[in-house]
Amino acid sequence: MELKAIRGDITRLPVDAIVNAANGSLLGGGGVDGAIHRAAGPDLLAACAALGGCPTGDARATPGFRLPARWIIHAVGPRWRGGGHGESALLAGCYRRSLEIAAGLQARSIAFPCIATGIYGFPAGAAAEIAVATVRATLAALPLPREVLFCCFSAGDLALYEALLPGA
Ligand code: ADP
Questions:
Q1: How far out from the chain centre does Cα 47 lie?
Q2: 49-86, pLDDT tens digit by residue?
Q3: Ligand 1 site: residues with CB under 6 angstroms?
Q4: The pTM is what?
Q5: Which of 30, 89, 111, 146 sits 20 to 30 Å CA-CA off 138?
């Protein structure tokens, strides 16, 4: 398996699946969610509405519509409330469930944004550690995906991931 950190706009990546940092309604929002809905086009909102929401720590898939990616996996991260409300386990659930869903869709490559670290306020360093550890552990038990990109929007986030992925 290959784990890599890159800096860029996740909506442009030619991977089999991208992950969205969605909210529980799945009806769109700001940040990366807004960017994905703008890039994928209006059919995405209709597909999301049909899913009827998603619990925190879990994920749901739609087609990618106008994106280069074939699938969008909408993961619902936890809102940071100080760390004592199960936030870490819920964030790990986002990464684990997204990979399980990607495997079911036969996706070989997948890109994640830094889920919950924007508007939801999860500390970026702790979130990166959870992301990398959960992806490694989950992929060990799955045949697919084989290639995972951590798509960072900021230079600071990229530095955090590069420190956790030596030699990548
Ligand atoms: P959340 O509500 O889960 O915190 P946000 O969208 O506010 O979600 O932030 C999650 C991360 O996505 C942040 O690191 C933010 O900088 C990043 N981000 C915003 N737009 C994009 C984009 N187009 N591609 C990749 N990452 C993005």
A1: 18
A2: 999 999 999 999 999 999 999 999 999 999 999 999 99
A3: 9-11, 21, 31-33, 35, 77, 113-120, 151, 153-154, 157
A4: 0.98
A5: 30
